Amino acid sequence: MGDSRDAIEAGNYISLATRKRSGDFVPTPVWFAPQGDSYYLFSAGDAGKVKRLRNFSEARIARCTATGKLTGEWLDVTAVVLDTPEECATALAALRRKYGLQMRIGDVFARLTGRFDRRAYIRVDLPAG
Description:
The protein has 129 residues and is an alpha+beta fold.
């Protein structure tokens, strides 16, 4: 079994491992923000993890460092790319709550470079219990 929610949420990064067609998982360190029974995160819309999630919602998460070194155990989850503006706004608000000024500065630079509107937002649903 994976780490407790408190242990995961104490950090700034999780490793999100998304499934390839071969069945192998590809891990990527990402910022994440809790809300309810889910975590929200964002990515470039054309990133490999987004493409993989559109094919397979099975994923895994674990605590990690900014460089992706695991500091916790894997937890099996379901992850989906969000489609509606309302869902994306919920994700962005959760990320801004957690990361504050860091997220807002990142948003400014993403807008200046044209990446903001090409972002994909992802919801990670934790297992019940």
